[in-house]
Structure formats: C-alpha cells, structure tokens
UniProtKB/TrEMBL annotation:
Name this polypeptide is given: Uncharacterized protein
Cofactors demanded by this protein: [4Fe-4S] cluster
Source organism: Zhongshania antarctica
Keyword line: Iron, Iron-sulfur, Metal-binding, S-adenosyl-L-methionine
Keyword Cytoplasm among UniProt keywords: no
Keyword S-adenosyl-L-methionine among UniProt keywords: yes
Segments forming domain Radical SAM core: 193-429
PANTHER family, A to Z: ANAEROBIC MAGNESIUM-PROTOPORPHYRIN IX MONOMETHYL ESTER CYCLASE-RELATED (PTHR43409), SLR0320 PROTEIN (PTHR43409:SF16)
Length: 639
C-alpha cells in the first residue's frame, strides 16, 4: 500500500480584526500545484488564523489533530513541513508556535518566509527554524519540496540556514518579471462555504510588486521585494476581481506599494468602479498611494471617491524634518509638496489624511511639534505612528551608527519589533515624551474627543498645540489613575501601550471628562496669554462634546449652543477659522445622532472619527472627513 501524501502545513494570521483570505500562503500552494514535480506526494493545507486568540485555541488542540499526522509521516520515512508567513503583527505568536511544534516533533522541517525574517541571522541562531526564504517565495518553496532530502540546500537559491553552526546564504533568487506566470491564490482558496456564504470580510490583493523607493525605515524597497516594479496583466486582475466580488467580499485592500504610479493603475480603478456599479461591491478599495501624487494619482483618487469606494487618501509624509528626510532617503520625494494637494482634495470633500512618524533618526521633539502644528493646519486627519525598528531595513543595519536605542514592543522583543526611544538626534527622555505626545494626539484628535478644538487652536498664529495635548493627557492620567489602578499611568510608555483602554475608560462619563478638559484648556490659554480665545474655545468644546463617540446604543439628542454651529463647523472642517460673527452669541438648538458603540464596536481611538456624532441639519454642508480603519467595518457606520 502506498504511503499517504506527506503533510505540508502553511500558517498565516491576520492583523487585529482585519479578517481576510489567506492570499500569501494560498499563492504558495497554487504555485506548487501548478509547477511542483511531486504534487501527488504532498498534501498542502492552509491554516489561517483570524487573530492571536485563534492561535491559542489551535495550540490547545493540535496535539490531537496535526501532531498525529506529522508523526505518521515521519514513521513512513517522510519529512513533513510546516511553513510560516511572518509579518510584524504575527511574528510573536508564530515564533511561540514554532518552538512548540519543534519541541514536540524535532524532525519536522520548519520554513519561515516573509518581510519580518529577512534578517535571517536574528532568528536562525535562537529559534528552531530550519530554512528561511529570502526574497520572493513561490519558486524557492517549490524547489524546497522537490529537493531530495539527501541533497544539500545549497542547490536552492534564496535560502538561509545553519550548517555546522554557521549561517549559509545561497545565491539571491532572481525576481520574477512576468507575474502572470504565478497562478492565482484564488484557485486554491475557498471564498464561500458550502451554502454559498462569503467566508471573509476582506481580501489583500497585489496588482504589482516592487517599490521604486528605498526608505531607510521600510522593508518594501529592500532586496526582499526589489525596487523595480512589475505588474500583473489587466486580464488577470479583471478575472480575480470578478471572482472576489462574486464571492461577496466587501473590501479590497491592495498590497501595491505605489498605486497610481503605473499608467495601468487608472484602468484598474475604472474597472473596480464598473464592478461597484454593476454588483454593489466592493464597499471600499484601499491601497498605499504613489509617493509622487501625480495628476494621474489625483484623477484615480477623485474617481474612487465619486464612486463611494475611497475610505481614505493618505499622503505618507512620515516626517517634515530636513535631516530626518535626508537620512530616510525621502528628501526629494514628490509627496513633500503636499499643501496644494491637500487643499484641492479637501475642497472636493475627499477623505484625505497625512501620515507622520515619531522616532525617525534625524528628527527631534521640537521640530516634530512644529511639524505637527503645520499638518494640523493643512489636513483634516492625521495618522501618527511610533517608529518601530524593523529587521531588514537600512536603519536596522545602521542602528549603531545612529546610536539607536530601543525597547521591546509590548514585551515581545524582536518578534514584533522595537520602539525607537533615542538616537543621535534626540535623547531617551525626549524620545519617550514624543510617545506621550502622539498618545495625546491619538486620543484627543484622532479619537474625536477634541478634534475641532485642537484644529481651532492650531490655526491660531500664537498657539502651539503640543504642550496643550500633553497637558490634557497628564491631567487625564492623574484623574483616572485610581480607576485604572492595575496600570501605572505615570509611566509614559505604559500610557502609550494602554491608550485603547484609557480611551474607553474616560468615555464612560463624558460630563466628568469634558469638565476636566475644559479646565485644562482654559488654564493653558491663560498661561499662554491667550485669554481672548476663551469664549470661542468654550463654544467649540461644547460642539466637540456633542459629537464625541458614545457608550451604549444609537441615540438622538438635542443640544443647545450659543454660536453659529453650522458656519463654524463648516469653516473648521475646511481647515479655516470661523468668522468672528460665527462665534458671536447666537442661541441655537440641534439634534445630534450618535451611533454609540464605545467599548463594544469601538474599542480603541483609531475608530473615533468613524463613530462620531452627526448634526441633523439640512443646511450643513460638510461633516468631518471620515477615515475608515480596518477595526471598524463600514456596515457598522451611522447611516
């Protein structure tokens, strides 16, 4: 009797609540089924986890499900395989899983690939990984399975492994230029169940590979991906996208690095709009945009926006500080000319946002604060991130040169990256204070607690918002320390890592929260000799409170105001100061519709702008631009 096919388990995991089809490991399986020499001898199975809880649940039962299959294969003289698609968000869980599997079954062949393990020497000496795939993985994976166990791995390009205690790296795997030669992952992934119900909310899809930029903090333009861009044909894209919407998948999230940079990208956008008009799907279409933001990019943005497909248009500025731009290899990038783009898109009602990173070598806190104020005056939304040092990037390799100091991300060390807290241009105290500042922005601006108030103050010539943001956060931490007594809110990094919990806690009692915030804002204005803004900011804080996210279910509440709410809000939504007469005493009453959901639907401040309140008025022309976050699905938004 012939032995059963040798089992090959390919593991993948989504990030947070982004529930998407496993296209990465699906691509590996599809490629082997199309090009493998021993397809009948292997049984490839995809194991896709929704989140870390799903990993833990699998670990509790795998001894009764997967381990017997591995043991049976070994007894038959085979060498079963476990392969892991490693990214920053899943590396901690997968390293734990690798240790567990290898401890129970040391003879299993363990393969790791993906962006997070491209610095192979950080893993091979400490973790029981047998082979690390460097660069594109499809052909390398196929050749691994088709290489006899008696042959050395040196015959397979694009590999790193240990031999006699030393790392061996085989010749670089040449990138594939004809991407249509890669079979579609959709050939092997079930998108619907037996009853025809869609299995996934979203899908990550690439129409091109490569990034022409080599940003020092990013893995995209490194050797793992390459700087030259290649793309799939429109025939392939059309076929796959039709299959995706026919399955009922709501959101398509492109894995392209610079969408809009290629002339075919306009045709892709036109086709996705055709699908939307015909089928109603997808609900949204998100991507990483070209850094040049050319007229073609802007045409694509407007096309998607007019067809209700654009969750956000993000300009990945990352920093405005000259030295940080230079060290990051972004000095001459077209995205730096952002002001006219931002104004044009805001005038069209496009959900535009800018990205900013704190902690890049070459930056410092005073310049970052000036950059923050400048962008608050220019963009309706800012997404600010802490810089996490990632393996395989230029900054990672030059960490000693730039005197980069780090601390582990959430206690996971190399598995999930490292927070940069100091370098040659800012010391550790300044670095950690920067984390505290971005936490304050995430809560009060991005979390939609005081977005209009912060914008009003940023638009003033004589006010700096950064000290105020930190003052507000320190007051909140002091006020809520007893309530959150199991975390140390005097530790700025603890506050950053527990920002979601702090956010949901302070919104349990809005009256107490906004009484505290008003007091702190008034004190700050008095100390800054800006008392002339007291009456105006009092009005705007009232409006922010009325529109803030709420605990509980949907509500409709009447509020009284003492100024021209509609004119003032419209001006601020368009990044302009209200006229003096707009803020003059004028009694008004409006109903505000709130979707609720804090602590249930909304569990972190990233979705605050999505679940804000809306003024119910036929005359209002502009509502704060929405930025969709993967954790808050569009079907949960207020109608």
């Amino acid at each position: 009797m012939n032995a059963l096919p040798c089992p090959v388990f390919l593991f993948s995991m989504d990030s947070d609540q982004f529930w998407a089809a496993p296209t990465t490991t699906g691509g590996l399986k599809a490629y082997y089924q199309a090009y493998g020499k021993q397809t009948s001898q292997y049984q490839l199975e995809l194991i896709h986890f929704r989140d870390s809880d799903a990993v833990a649940a699998w670990q509790s039962r795998w001894h009764n499900t997967v381990l017997p299959k591995l043991k049976t294969a070994l007894d038959a003289g085979q060498r079963p395989v476990v392969g892991f698609s490693m990214y920053t968000w899943n590396a901690a869980e997968f390293l734990s899983l690798i240790h567990q599997i290898k401890a129970a079954c040391p003879e299993v062949l363990c393969i790791a690939g993906g962006p997070h393990v491209q610095q192979a020497e950080d893993y091979l000496f400490e973790d029981p990984i047998d082979l690390i795939i460097l660069g594109e993985g499809e052909t390398t994976f196929q050749e691994i399975l088709d290489t006899p166990l008696s042959n050395p791995w040196t015959e397979v390009n694009g590999l790193a492994f240990l031999k006699n205690g030393e790392i061996v790296k085989t010749p670089e795997r040449r990138r594939r230029t004809l991407l249509d030669e890669l079979p579609s992952a959709l050939d092997v992934i079930d998108l619907v169940d037996a009853d025809g119900n869609c299995l996934y909310d979203s899908i990550s899809y690439e129409t091109s590979r490569g990034c022409p930029f080599k940003c020092a903090f990013c893995e995209w333009g490194t050797g793992a991906i390459g700087t030259k861009m290649y793309q799939f044909s429109m025939k392939r894209v059309r076929s796959d996208w039709r299959r995706i919407v026919d399955a009922g998948i709501k959101d398509i999230w492109l894995a392209d690095s610079n969408f809009g940079a290629l002339k075919e990208d306009l045709e892709k956008a036109q086709y996705i709009c055709e699908l939307k008009a015909e089928t109603g799907l997808p609900s949204s279409f998100a991507t990483s945009w070209s850094k040049k933001h050319s007229p073609r990019v802007q045409d694509i943005v407007l096309l998607l926006h007019r067809n209700g497909l654009l969750p956000h248009y993000q300009l990945a500025l990352q920093t405005l500080t000259p030295l940080a731009l230079e060290l990051s290899n972004r000095k001459n990038m077209g995205a730096n000319k952002y002001e006219p783009i931002a104004k044009q898109m805001a005038s069209e009602g496009v959900p535009i946002a800018a990205e900013l990173i704190w902690g890049l070598p070459g930056d410092n806190l005073p310049e970052f604060e000036r950059n923050l104020d400048q962008l608050l005056r220019t963009f309706p939304n800012l997404n600010i991130f802490a810089y996490t040092l990632l393996p395989g990037t230029e900054f990672y390799e030059r960490r000693e040169e730039y005197k980069i100091e780090t601390i582990p991300v959430a206690g996971y060390g190399k598995a999930k990256g490292e927070y940069v807290v100091a370098c040659h241009t800012f010391d550790r105290d300044q670095g950690i204070e920067g984390y505290f500042l971005i936490t304050a922005h995430i809560l009060f601006a991005h979390g939609h607690l005081l977005p209009l108030s912060i914008r009003y103050l940023a638009l003033q010539d004589n006010i700096t918002t950064a000290p105020l943001l930190r003052k507000l956060l320190r007051a909140v931490c002091a006020e809520y320390q007893d309530e959150l007594n199991d975390i140390d809110l005097s530790d700025r990094m603890v506050v950053y890592e527990n920002r979601a919990r702090l956010y949901t806690a302070i919104l349990q009692n809005p009256e107490a929260l906004y009484t505290l915030l008003r007091q702190q804002v008034f004190t700050y204005l008095d100390a800054a000799n800006c008392k002339q803004h007291r009456d105006a900011i009092a009005n705007i804080i009232d409006l922010d409170q009325a529109l803030s996210p709420r605990v509980g279910g949907p509500t409709e509440t009447e509020y009284s105001f003492n100024f021209d709410v509609i004119s003032s809000k419209t001006a601020l939504d368009c990044l302009s100061l209200p006229a003096p007469e707009d803020l003059s005493p004028k009694a008004q009453r409006f109903n505000v519709k709130s979707p609720g959901g804090v602590g249930t639907i909304l569990k972190d401040p990233d979705g605050g702008g999505w679940l804000r309140g809306e003024i119910l008025s036929p005359t209002i022309e502009v509502q704060t631009v929405r930025i969709m976050h993967p954790n808050v699905k569009p079907q949960l938004s207020p109608q």
